[in-house]
Specification:
Elements lengths: L5 H20 L6 H24 L5 H6 L7 H20 L1 H9 L1 H6 L4 H23 L6 H13 L3 H26 L3 H24 L2
């Protein structure tokens, strides 16, 4: 089978970019926000240049930027499922170590944990999730599926474990509702999922104000 799906190329490229971004961000000369701007803008420019050279911009750039579920082939679906399972299994296996690294990296290093290895693992897992959702959400909206569920869950829940579980539930619910509304009203899938996430975030914010104001 030929490499007909962009995901086969995107996965290794984005994984390498995530590790490079982490290394640059850890550099004292270049801060993390500058590193993100550097890598993201360069990657987008390279992608646009390659697309224009290879296809003359005949491909639907709007689908690439904002996503389209119709742009996904069966190969994309199978690969996305496989990558999602791998990410979930790795997260469960290394849950405690990832928790310690996320909570306090210096504490983890002091206790002999190889923080660099697990920080790279977090970056790679995040990169894989981004690649999986990029075809549906698009380049411009992909960050929302990572940011919104966590921020939403933290409105109500305060422990790491509860936030992780709640984020997973919120993500799945927003995805399913977004897909249904997208089909029902013929709206862009990626934007619909983001809007559903926004509504859920507002609901959780109101719950937070009601519960913690008492």
């Amino acid at each position: 089978m030929g490499i007909t799906s962009p995901l086969y190329i995107s996965i290794p490229v984005v994984t390498v970019a995530a590790v490079i971004l982490l290394k640059i961000g850890n550099s004292s000369k270049i801060k993390s926000d500058s590193a993100i701007a550097l890598i993201s803008s360069s990657s987008l420019a390279i992608g646009a240049a390659v697309t224009s050279v290879t296809t003359g911009m005949n491909t639907d750039v709007c689908n690439m930027m904002f996503g389209s579920i119709l742009a996904m082939s069966m190969a994309d679906v199978y690969l996305s499922v496989a990558v999602s399972i791998i990410v979930a299994v790795l997260f469960v296996i290394y849950y405690r170590k990832l928790f310690v690294i996320t909570f306090d990296e210096n504490f983890a290093r002091a206790n002999g944990l190889k923080a660099g290895r697990y920080t790279n693992l977090i970056a790679i897992l995040t990169a894989l999730i981004i690649v999986v959702g990029m075809r549906m959400m698009g380049v411009m909206l992909i960050s929302s599926i990572i940011i919104f569920p966590a921020l939403t869950s933290m409105r109500v829940f305060k422990s790491f474990k509860k936030v992780v579980i709640s984020s997973g539930i919120v993500s799945v619910c927003a995805f399913l509702i977004g897909i249904y509304l997208s089909y029902l009203y013929n709206i862009s899938t990626g934007s619909t999922i983001v809007l559903v996430n926004l509504v859920i975030f507002i609901i959780f914010t109101l719950i937070e104000k009601i519960v913690y104001s008492e």
